[in-house]
Each structure stands twice: as C-alpha cells, then as structure tokens.
Amino acid sequence: MIGPISSGLQRLGVTLTDREHSVLCMMVLGLFDSEIGDRLAISAATVRRSIASIMTKIRVKRRIQIVAVVLAPRALSEAEAAAAKIPSRPVRPARRS
Questions:
Q1: Are 32 and 22 in contact (CB under 8 A)?
Q2: HEC string for the chain
Q3: Angle in degrees, CA 64, 54, 50, rounded to 5
Q4: Which of 65, 69, 76, 83 measures 20 to 30 Å from 29, CA to CA?
Q5: pLDDT by residue (tens digit) across 21-54?
Q6: Whole-model pTM?
Q7: Contact 59, 67 (CB under 8 A)
Q8: 10 Å Cβ neighbour count for 24?
Q9: CA-CA distance, 84 to 93, in Å (whole number)?
Q10: How far apart are CA 78 and CA 81, in angstroms?
Q11: How many Å apart are CA 94 and CA 91, to the nearest integer?
C-alpha cells in the first residue's frame, strides 16, 4: 500500500532520493531541521540541502509549500480554478440595509 507522501510524489511525477524521502517524512511530522538531523545522524546543514533539493524537484519557492503540495489531493491549475469560478480572495456577503 502506498502512503500519502509516496502517492503525492507519484502524482507530481517526482522521484526523491532515500535521504530526501526520509527528510520529507520528518517534515510532515513537524520536526525541526536539527531534530531531523539527529534522527538521521546528519548535520542540520545537510538537512537544509536536502530540503532545497526537494523544493527544486517539486518546484516550490518556500519550504512551507512542500508539505502542502505533496499532501494536497490535487492542485488546481489556474485554468481549472477560473473554470470553477474560485475567487482569488474571499467574497464578503453584501451588507443588509
């Protein structure tokens, strides 16, 4: 059985190294770089390099986006969002007079 991380990566067409996959799994758990490094017996700098590599492979600019993109059921393209008429910001209900 494929877990949500592996299926998310598969959906994105991304292949990670074993180390990158381990780092990603620990990011999903909410661990800090130093905690990830301690568990994998690597330096925090190596953790940050792995995270930078993951970001490049899944094409995100911020590390907070990594987990959201990988675990998202399916990201909408701009065209799909426009077709679904999803507003770019919340629409407030009209005030009653």
A1: no
A2: CCCHHHHHHHHHCCCCCHHHHHHHHHHHCCCCHHHHHHHHCCCHHHHHHHHHHHHHHHCCCCHHHHHHHHHCCCCCCHHHHHHCCCCCCCCCCCCCC
A3: 100
A4: 76
A5: 999 999 989 999 999 999 999 999 999 999 999 9
A6: 0.71
A7: no
A8: 23
A9: 19
A10: 5
A11: 9
In this structure, which amino acid lies at residue 2? I
The residue with tokens 């017996």 is 41
Q: Which two tokens stand for residue 50?
A: 């792995």
Structure tokens at 65: 């986006």
User: Per the structure block, which two tokens stand in for 9?
Assistant: 């990566």
Question: Which tokens is 83 given?
Answer: 């077709």
